Amino acid sequence: MRRPGELGVVGVRIRSASGNVRAATEGMLRVTVYEDSGEVRLQLEGQLAGLWVREVEHCWRTAERDNCRRNLTVDLGDVDFVDGAGEQLLVAMHHHGVALIATGLMVKGMVSRITGQR
Length: 118
Prior knowledge:
Elements (H helix, E strand, L loop, with lengths): L5 E5 L18 E7 L3 E10 L2 H16 L4 E12 L1 H12 L3 E3 L3 H11 L3
């Protein structure tokens, strides 16, 4: 059941050209999109790495296009790993005005570097 304002959850299994589901060792990521009158929030849970980076970028671009007048926030509170491509995506999002929220030590440090805040 969806919570008020929740648009949906992206939890995609990615299959290779041969039809095999990608290895579990590549991690998982859940993206939940919440929307209210003034803000759209992408809540990420898991690992922002590998093929998931492209999926998050797609969610971000779609939210940005469909909600151009609202503030966009990415909640990284439940992210436990970010690879280099994920960090580059967060940098791009920040440069486009997306607010990045993090609570975990590693991710919070990365967000501080990206945003220039200490």
